[in-house]
Amino acid sequence: MTIEMNNLNQATELFGEGFPPKQQVNLEHKMWFMFEQDIDLYIVGVVVFAVIFILFMRVRKKKRKA
User: Fold this and answer.
1) Degrees (nearest 5) of the Cα angle 9, 14, 18?
2) Which residue from 25, 26, 50, 57 lies 20 to 30 Å from 64 (Cα-Cα)?
3) What does the longest C-alpha to C-alpha distance in the chain come to?
């Protein structure tokens, strides 16, 4: 079942106030490997470029031998 809610008051009425957090948790030291989302795109681009370059060099090398 899905209920559409237009404002926060409807959610509070249906689900209640909830509970406050028991303690504050800092996970920054576990997230050292996380960077901005854009870096992932650059890494994929570099890998794709490297694969295309390697394939191009292999084809070029085969044509010289023939």
Assistant:
1) 85
2) 50
3) 77
